[in-house]
Amino acid sequence: MTFVGCQEGGRIIIGWSCFVTLCSLLVGSRCASFDDFFYPSWAVDHVMSQGELLQLKLDNISGAGFASKSTYIFGKANVQIKLVPGDSAGTVTAFYMSSQGDQHDEFDFEFLGNTSGEPYAVQTNVYSKGVGNREQRIFLWFDPTADFHSYSFLWNRQQVVFFVDDVPVRIFSNNEKRGVPFPQTQPMGVYSSIWNADDWATQGGLVKTDWSHAPFISTYKNFSIDACQYSSKTNCSSWWDQPVYASLNAKQRLKLKWVHEKYMTYDYCKDSVRFPTPPAECA
């Protein structure tokens, strides 16, 4: 596997590709590697490289995670993941972007494991200025353990869009005019992790992790970031600032509607018990 990167002004494009033999960014006199841009954020011995693949392992000792060394503001982050196969109940694999601190911003994909033969639930969430509680859940329309599928965030000043295989599954629009904070000032890192969450992840915590099936392994490839790498002088723009990306197009809106009508199982906007008065962005 080759990890490649290039920089154009404040914009950085990095990615893994097993097909690339020449790299466009040198570190010293060698091609850039995973270690140049990312690091195991915990449980180094549970972060494993297998040729073109990266794997995170969960057992009864520890989960694992990795994080980007740099932070970014606006752009697109994408990864292909093959989720834990078989009985994955109690486990959570997460792919997310986040800033730091009590007032942090964050976008989450959380893949909630299930018993063998039952579908994975995907929970998404958005934090802005430290406020979250914006959960949505869907089932996927394919088996995410049988092959790799792409999961990505598109982030610009108008919207955050969550994609699964280029199908939009969630949009969080800029509603600052309604008093809803929108993430656009805090740079965010890119993260992924796997951990045990059997107190809530599967059927509300009723189904616990069966450690006899450990280790639980999520597998990654073709991670890419096309975004503004943050510095105190960051001032870059690119394709994501074009008007065409300010909102979904007609075809994307139809796909989003299809996902929500057929596969959504929970939407905080419709939860009148938690929110007797709907949040402003849901109006």
Describe the model.
By secondary structure, the chain is mainly beta. Helix content is 6%, strand content 43%. The chain has two helices and 19 strands. The chain has helices at 34-37, 250-263; strands spanning 2-8, 11-17, 26-27, 30-31, 38-42, 47-50, 53-58, 64-68, 72-82, 91-98, 106-112, 121-127, 136-139, 149-155, 159-164, 167-173, 189-196, 216-229, 264-267. The strands form three sheets. Strands 1, 2, 6, 7, 9, 14, 15, 16 and 18 form a nine-stranded antiparallel β-sheet that branches. An eight-stranded antiparallel β-sheet has the order 5-8-17-10-11-12-13-19. A hairpin with a 2-residue loop joins strand 1 and strand 2 (11-17). The radius of gyration is 19 Å and the shape is globular. The N and C termini lie far apart (47 Å). The model is unreliable at 1-5 and 17-32 (pLDDT under 50).
Brief summary:
By secondary structure, the protein is mostly beta strands. It has helices at residues 34-37, 250-263; strands at 2-8, 11-17, 26-27, 30-31, 38-42, 47-50, 53-58, 64-68, 72-82, 91-98, 106-112, 121-127, 136-139, 149-155, 159-164, 167-173, 189-196, 216-229, 264-267.
SSE order in H/E notation? EEEEHEEEEEEEEEEEEEEHE
Which range does the strand content fall in?
A: 35-45%
| Strands, total number | 19
Number of helices: 2
Share of helix among residues? under 10%
pLDDT < 50 stretches: 1-5, 17-32
- Structural class per helix/strand content? mainly beta
How can the largest sheet be summarized? 9 strands, antiparallel
Structural features:
283 residues, mainly beta, nine-stranded antiparallel sheet, eight-stranded antiparallel sheet, 2 helices, 19 strands, disordered N terminus
